[in-house]
Amino acid sequence: MTPARLGLRARASRVLLDNWHGQSTVPSGGLYPHQWSWDSAFIALGLRHLSPRRAQRELESLFGAQWPDGRVPHIVFDAATPADAYFPGPGFWASAAVTGPGFPATSGLIQPPVHALAAWETFRAAPELARERGFLPRLYPRLVAWHRYLTGRRDFGGRGLVCVVHPWESGMDNSPAWDEPLGRVRPATAFTRRDLDHAAAGERPTDLDYGRYVRLARTYRDLGYADDPAGHEFAVEDPLTNALLAASEAALAEIAAELGHDPAPHLAELARLTAALVDVLFDEGDGCFHARDVHSGQVLRLGSVGGLVPLVVPGLPVADALVKTMLGPRFRLGELGLPPSFDLTDGRFEPARYWRGPAWFNIGWLLWHGLRLHGEDELAGTVRAGLLSAADDAGFREYVDPLTRSGHGAHDFSWTAAVVLDLLE
Ligand code: 9WN
């Protein structure tokens, strides 16, 4: 490794060491002072090179907060952090009313299921330590219960695909892909945002978005987090969520085989999910996957980068079309080396606002991983170089302008550092 790369590695390690809270890692000290679900998965992918033991703890602590119904909550609140440090905090979600005593305070939403993939990669980094600690035997049944919650309770459309019931569940909160279904929601009032204490308003969702986020979350809470389609104003079949579930089923097959269990049910599930994804959400004309609004039946035909993430699915039959779309004018991946989160040619593209245009490092990692999986090594190398240089220049920011590479959002962001550590290996 060159001295410059060694310096980058040391700085990335420092971010993860500083953001470690004893059992898990916060995404960033000020803006996100608790544990987030899909962040922990990406963090484990980096942490495994720094401290395999911590990487294992990261996932174990998240699954320690798994609900009895199998859902893995999107936030696990740190009891040592003041309740009003983040909005909506533990009092808003009132999770104990459903989980009962003995569970940590959590939100009641979910986030994309990339955990089994992270668990398998974490195991592979230090198999001996993992075996000694019983990492996979403890995690495997929990991962299975998580996946079965998703396929059992969240298939509102009856098409074999998982629905997300809140933009926060998609991980891509204010993506223009959600504007239409979210626009039908009457915004809540009388709440105080905390995010604007730590980030510029122009880089975050709007107050109107927040009003709608709060309304949807309150309704779910007041229904006791019941997964009845009629109770959810917002319900979409999201390609990113379903693709990560499929990739995670493939990882569960590996985990099952390692533990001496039969991998066949997981491979069958992978095949079933892949077929449903392609049949229902792939748009041949557009060379991209699109989410589908379960209530209106409408395909949300917008250029979200989430529509390219199915490249992470092993054996995806439409990988070539996705690569072509990545290289085309809407994403210009070969030229930029970074994936814009939204179609560059669409009037709604905003280069510095959150999920409406900026490039994110976790998405970059997923595309890099998917490109390698499908033999696209040259483009994968371009993405790797783009992510490393952008993180180096901007300094581990939450997201960057894909055109100018200027940094935005939180500083010292954990998954940015984690992705860098993994790409440097
Ligand atoms: C709401 C923690 C999370 C990420 C999400 C990202 C952002 C939260 C927020 O931060 O969402 O969950 O307060 O804006 O959109 O992907 O997991 O890093």
Automatic annotation (TrEMBL):
SUPFAM superfamilies referenced in this protein's UniProt entry, alphabetically: Six-hairpin glycosidases
Pfam family, one: MGH1-like_GH
Residues of the Mannosylglycerate hydrolase MGH1-like glycoside hydrolase domain: 32-416
Key words of the record: Glycosidase, Hydrolase
Record GO biological process: oligosaccharide metabolic process; protein N-linked glycosylation
Transmembrane regions: none
GO MF annotations, alphabetized: Glc3Man9GlcNAc2 oligosaccharide glucosidase activity
InterPro entries noted in UniProt: 6-hairpin_glycosidase_sf (IPR008928), 6hp_glycosidase-like_sf (IPR012341), Glycoside_hydrolase_63 (IPR004888), MGH1-like_GH (IPR054491)
Similarity comment text for this entry: Belongs to the glycosyl hydrolase 63 family.
Protein name: Mannosylglycerate hydrolase MGH1-like glycoside hydrolase domain-containing protein
Species, as recorded: Amycolatopsis albispora
